[in-house]
Amino acid sequence: MPQSLAQLFALDGLIQDDEREIAKAVRHFVDERVRPHIAEWFDTGEVPARELTKELGELGVLGMHLDGYGCAGLSATTYGLACQELEAGDSGIRSLVSVQGSLAMYSIHAYGSEEQKQEWLPRMAAGDAIGCFGLTEPDFGSNPGGMRTRAKKDGDDWVLNGTKMWITNGTVADVAVVWAQTDEKVRGFVVPTDTPGFSAPEIKRKMSLRASVTAELVLEDVRLPASAVLPEVQGLRGPLGALSEARFGIIFGAMGAARDCLETAISYAQDRQVFDKSLASYQLTQAKLADMALELGKGQLLALHLGRLKDSGTITPEQVSVGKLNNTREAITIARQCRTILAANGITLEYPVIRHANNLESVLTYEGTSEVHQLVIGKALTGAEAFR
Ligand SMILES: Cc1cc2nc3c(=O)[nH]c(=O)nc-3n(C[C@H](O)[C@H](O)[C@H](O)COP(=O)(O)OP(=O)(O)OC[C@H]3O[C@@H](n4cnc5c(N)ncnc54)[C@H](O)[C@@H]3O)c2cc1C
Q1: DSSP H or E stretch at residue 190
Q2: pTM for this one?
Q3: Measured by CB atoms within 10 angstroms of the end CB, which terminus of the chain is less buried, N or C?
Q4: How far apart are CA 361 and CA 370, in angstroms?
């Protein structure tokens, strides 16, 4: 009797009963609500984001690791396991949840006023309001410190001008957390998307993360009251703190996409006959499967270890970089290798593999590219900063 991937690493023994139950519920949601439609959403580039957000709110995964304001207050590890299940469905669906919970809601939760928290968090947790997070600009991605979006004081008001790029959930968002340069430091602003001067044109013709909305944010004399600024943070520390939260979810999520690819490839290799024998019975195939299972298992163990560190309050940004770099890099390698096992069938949306592989191109890039995480780890190892 073949062993499952989970049995090989005995991962289940490292997960508590309540964590397992929640992961199971999310897996069930993905099986029922995502898998039957995802190929079509990816193919057409159209995803029912508002409907899905409401259902994800009912499932309880939006801001699930935050306390109070309608959020579930669950552990970081539980949140990670939920991300793993969501991304086994599709990286775009996990991105929706990450941006809502770890970027937009986290920023308001960690840096917002009581009034901002009361106004937005319960609705966002329930999936009644969608959030996005605007940091990247057309000319400043890896180096957000160069941002050109400006917020100027005008009496008590703030007036924002600038353009943000590649913003997940942008066209469907009710609220945007926008980071802008002021006369002093970078500040965060809570911008209702119906504010005059705000628009969010969709970015079309993507070949990756097609079941996810990506937009530009255009801010033309967007006038906001003094109460719109996030009062509790100044400088890049704000957005970088939120990014560290979202990166954490990706460490688990990427392994979900890789797991789905490997499960698909194993099952395909068992069924597919080549030269009169099952593809799974050839040594070359087994070498590929064994090597991929090792990287998947090691990545999952790393994710769990980092989850426990986060829950104990000791995780460092460098450790998050270790997880993000390793797990996204290994996930995309696994996806591409699985595609070779499925050969021609691997290039169609009949199987999830090419979709995951294409999605992982974005996952490798956003929330800090691999090169940026190499530089973070390099600095930690040597003490020498090599960003410039
Ligand atoms: C689908 C998708 C969704 C996204 N969602 C969001 C979102 O919701 N909100 C948001 O704010 N942003 C979002 N992003 C933007 C994402 O975070 C940026 O694309 C990312 O930070 C990289 O920036 P860039 O694309 O401008 O690349 P660049 O910064 O131009 O980098 C180009 C290349 O140079 C490398 N590089 C950069 N600096 C160095 C260096 N010092 N040394 C060596 N190499 C270097 C990079 O690693 C990369 O290979 C999203 C991106 C995508 C693709």
Answers
A1: strand 186-192
A2: 0.98
A3: N
A4: 11
